[in-house]
């Protein structure tokens, strides 16, 4: 597994396929493989790069408090180390916040930008209280996992996959040190001042049934990015699992256009 040294952090990442670079940036708690591993082969004609920023996978750091700037530097370091710049950069959830920061501060590294189920400001009372309640459940792993699962997926999807698979998701959604560091960052993340600096062509994808980051946040990002394209899928927060085919088709069409 390749490693990129960024400051005091050893950032691990994986590389798949051949072609122009497509970097996929994960969200809270789950690393890149857990978020995007099932989609890698569906992005055709691309070198798909999956970084794990601090708090996930085998990436090693000092365990300190995270900032968007720190995680953006880690993703930028991986892009530079891959030799594929400029890349198409796709972020999901917290990864959207990080990816937007990369595009704003390192426009030389980003050709096109896809922001999925993200947000730009920390002052939304719903989002603030949801993250606070989720963090407060850290002492009860089962409650933490159930709350995270209920907010991450739509009711229809949970009923479709059934009880056994829901229980598997709950068990996999645990209050790790990394997840708690990410939730702490979610409560502080604010990129409103960075959005006007983004130069890359941008696709914003919102999730109409999102109970983690309400879809209005994606609409706000789209409105703040002049010339951006917007698409909305009938999905809960984790659209990469609820609507994988539709999601990949949207992204592939956007990055393949002349």
Automatic annotation (TrEMBL):
<dbReference type="Pfam" id="PF00561">
    <property type="entry name" value="Abhydrolase_1"/>
</dbReference>
<dbReference type="InterPro" id="IPR029058">
    <property type="entry name" value="AB_hydrolase_fold"/>
</dbReference>
<dbReference type="GO" id="GO:0016787">
    <property type="term" value="F:hydrolase activity"/>
</dbReference>
<dbReference type="InterPro" id="IPR050266">
    <property type="entry name" value="AB_hydrolase_sf"/>
</dbReference>
<dbReference type="GO" id="GO:0016020">
    <property type="term" value="C:membrane"/>
</dbReference>
<dbReference type="InterPro" id="IPR000073">
    <property type="entry name" value="AB_hydrolase_1"/>
</dbReference>
<keyword id="KW-0378">Hydrolase</keyword>
<protein>
    <submittedName>
        <fullName>3-oxoadipate enol-lactone hydrolase</fullName>
    </submittedName>
</protein>
<feature type="domain" description="AB hydrolase-1">
    <location>
        <begin position="22"/>
        <end position="244"/>
    </location>
</feature>
């Amino acid at each position: 597994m390749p490693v990129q040294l960024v400051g005091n952090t050893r950032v691990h990442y994986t590389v798949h396929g051949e072609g122009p670079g497509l970097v996929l940036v994960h969200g809270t708690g789950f690393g890149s493989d857990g978020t995007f591993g099932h989609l890698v082969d569906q992005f055709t004609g691309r070198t798909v790069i999956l970084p794990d920023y601090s708090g996930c996978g085998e990436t090693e750091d000092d365990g300190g408090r995270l900032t968007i700037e720190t995680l953006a530097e880690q993703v930028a370091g991986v892009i530079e180390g891959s030799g594929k710049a400029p890349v198409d950069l796709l972020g999901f959830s917290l990864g959207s916040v990080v990816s937007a920061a990369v595009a704003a501060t390192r426009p030389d590294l980003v050709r096109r930008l896809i922001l999925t189920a993200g947000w730009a400001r920390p002052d939304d009372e719903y989002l603030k209280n949801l993250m606070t309640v989720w963090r407060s459940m850290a002492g009860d792993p089962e409650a933490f996992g159930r709350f995270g699962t209920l907010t991450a997926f739509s009711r229809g999807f949970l009923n479709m996959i059934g009880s056994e698979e829901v229980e598997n998701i709950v068990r996999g959604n645990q209050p790790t040190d990394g997840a708690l560091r990410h939730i702490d960052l979610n409560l502080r993340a604010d990129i409103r001042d960075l959005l006007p600096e983004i130069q890359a062509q941008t696709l914003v994808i919102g999730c109409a049934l999102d109970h983690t980051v309400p879809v209005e946040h994606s609409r706000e990002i789209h409105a703040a990015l002049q010339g951006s394209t917007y698409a909305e899928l009938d999905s809960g927060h984790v659209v990469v699992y609820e609507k994988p085919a539709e999601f990949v088709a949207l992204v592939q069409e956007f990055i393949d256009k002349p």
